[in-house]
């Protein structure tokens, strides 16, 4: 099962830490909010090379706006905190 990074837009306030940890997956819009470089805006497919950085982004997001869904390992769809 593939893993996706889910962004909860009700919690995100555009601090941008996730975009620094995942520059290949996320860019920033004009207001600083994360924007997927390709695909879905809310559920972003995570490649094998970005798996560790995605887990780190979930753990470090100050607004608890991120979670990894699907696959094995990592947060397994549960919030990291």
Detailed description of the structure:
- The protein is of the alpha+beta class.
- The chain is about 20% helix and about 20% strand.
- The protein is built from two helices and five strands; from the N terminus they run βαβββαβ.
- The protein has helices spanning about 15-20, 50-60, and strands at about 5, 25-30, 35, 45, 65-70.
- The strands form two sheets. A three-stranded antiparallel sheet has the order 4-1-5, covered by helices on one side.
- β2 and β3 form a beta hairpin.
- The protein is globular.
- The termini are far apart.
Give the helix/strand layout:
Elements: E1 4-7, H1 17-21, E2 26-28, E3 34-36, E4 43-45, H2 51-60, E5 66-69
Antiparallel strand pairs: 1-4, 1-5, 2-3
**Strand proportion:** 15-25%
Average pLDDT for all residues: 88
Please give the count of helices: 2
Distance between the termini: 23 Å
- What class, by secondary structure content? alpha+beta
User: How many strands appear in the DSSP assignment?
Assistant: 5
Give the SSE string. EHEEEHE
Q: Unreliable segments (pLDDT under 50, ≥5 consecutive)?
A: 74-81
Give helix % range: 10-25%
Shape: globular
Largest sheet: spatial strand order:
4-1-5
Round the Cα radius of gyration to an integer and report it: 11 Å
Main β sheet profile: 3 strands, antiparallel
Oligomer description: single chain
Features of the shown structure:
alpha+beta; three-stranded antiparallel beta sheet; 81 residues
Briefly, what is this?
The protein has two helices and five strands, in the order βαβββαβ. It has 81 residues and is of the alpha+beta class.
């Amino acid at each position: 099962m593939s893993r996706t990074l889910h962004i909860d837009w009700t919690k995100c306030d555009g601090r941008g830490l996730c975009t620094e940890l995942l520059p290949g997956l996320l860019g920033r819009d004009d207001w600083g909010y994360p924007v997927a470089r390709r695909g879905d805006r809310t559920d972003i497919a995570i490649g094998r090379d970005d798996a560790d950085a995605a887990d780190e982004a979930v753990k470090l997001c100050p607004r608890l706006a991120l979670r990894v869904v699907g696959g094995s390992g990592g947060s397994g769809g549960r919030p990291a905190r």
